Amino acid sequence: MHLAQLNIAEAVTSIEDPVMADFVNNTDRINTLAEKNEGFIWRLVGDNGDDSYSINAFDSEYVLVNMSVWKDRDSLFDFVYNSGHLEVFKRKKEWFAKMPKMHMVLWYIEKGDIPTIKEGKKRLEYLKSTWRYSLCI
Questions:
Q1: d(Cα 98, Cα 57) in Å, to the nearest integer?
Q2: Backbone phi, then psi, for 79, in 5-degree steps?
Q3: What one-character DSSP code corresponds to residue 99?
Q4: Could you list the pLDDT tens digit for every one of the 137 residues in the chain?
Q5: Is 100 in contact with 15 (CB distance < 8 Å)?
Q6: Is residue 74 part of a domain?
Q7: What is the tally of structural domains in the chain?
């Protein structure tokens, strides 16, 4: 089994806005880091073949989608928290609004399978509908 993940983030402004420049300018570098990770299997790409910004899966140009497949949980966590990804991740408040509900879902898939956005959205919606928590401000 491999681990699929979908996460979404709502940009504070349009992806073309100068506020988003550092995020956009780091995308290729972070994607390359992911792809070179030994646990990396696959990532969603957009119509332009290099990022997924062009995918409007949540009826808003401000909601960006990231979906990938990893060998296992440890591989994904190693990339997120122990690579150059972390320095960009720590700056997320500069570019993205706080999500009031679940914005990430992980699930296991058979080796060789590639998840679809439809499947990821369905799993995220299910998680949102079953997860009970309160937001502490």
A1: 19
A2: -65, -50
A3: P
A4: 999 999 999 999 999 999 999 999 999 999 999 999 999 999 999 877 667 777 888 888 899 999 999 999 999 999 999 999 999 999 999 999 998 888 999 999 999 999 999 999 999 988 888 876 544 44
A5: no
A6: yes
A7: 1
Asked, for residue 85, whether it belongs to a domain, the answer is yes
Question: Nearest CA to 70 among 102, 125, 108?
Answer: 108
CATH number of the domain at 109, please: 3.30.70.100
- CB contact at 8 A, 64 and 53: yes
pTM of the model: 0.87
